[in-house]
Every structure is written in structure tokens, then in C-alpha cells.
Amino acid sequence: MSFTQILVILVIALIVLGPEKLPQVARMAGKALAELRRITGDFRSTIEGEMREIERETALKEARESFPPHIHYDLQTEEATLPPESSSATTPAATQAETQTDSGKANNGESKPA
Questions:
Q1: Domains in the chain: how many in total?
Q2: Is residue 88 part of a domain?
Q3: Which pLDDT score is estimated for 89?
Q4: How far is CA 41 from CA 33, 54, 89, in A?
């Protein structure tokens, strides 16, 4: 709106409302506009936040699909793990059997007493 249009509206409002009520109406209109701006800003930020969340989930899904199916990669902890292989896996019992000495007691990395 141009300056002349705003001036015409103010003159008409002054004539219709009078000089006593014009400041009150202007204050109420200002508060209403401020509230409207706040509501639209909240709405806009909510929509933008939801869009960012959708984009993040889409990117995460694409990243998970790009990994080979035999590798399990947890993107939350950033640790890659391979599924256990039954033929070459070392069991805890086999590891403990390797650490035992001739006497049948566990060595635990300690040297034999002299």
C-alpha cells in the first residue's frame, strides 16, 4: 500500500471512531497483528522442523540401504559388525583351553614359579 492509501484509511478511521477510541483500536489491532505473527512463526517453525526430520529419516534410510546386506552397521553407534561365522569362530571354551598349563590350572598370563 502506498502512503496516500494509508493516510486515507487513517483519516476515515479518525472520523468513524473519533479521537478517544482510535488509540484503543490501534493498540488492539497492533496486539492482534503481533499475535498473528507469533502464531504464523510457530506454525512455520513446526512445519520446517517436521520437514527436516523427514529429510533426516530419508537420508538415514538411504544410508542403511547402501550397505551390503551381510554387514550390519548401526548408524546410531557407528560400529560395523559382521555376522558370526560358525566355521571359523573361536569359542570362549577353546580360548580358555589354550591358556591352561600342563598341570591343568589356568595360566592367566602369569609366569611359572621357579
A1: 1
A2: no
A3: 46
A4: 12, 20, 58
Residue 95 lies in a domain: no
pTM of the model: 0.46
HEC assignment per residue over the chain? CCHHHHHHHHHHHHHHHHHHHHHHHHHHHHHHHHHHHHHHHHHHHHHHHHHHHHHHHHHHHHHHHHCCCCCEEECCCCEEECCCCCCCCCCHHHHHHHCECCCCCECCCCCCCC
Residue indicated by cell numbers 609366569: 111
Kindly state the percentage of the chain with pLDDT values over 70: 60
Q: What is the pLDDT of residues 18-74, one digit of tens each?
A: 889 989 998 999 999 999 999 999 999 999 999 999 999 999 888 888 877 676 656
Instruction: Note down the domain range covering 67.
Output: 3-81
Residue 99 lies in a domain: no
96: in domain: no
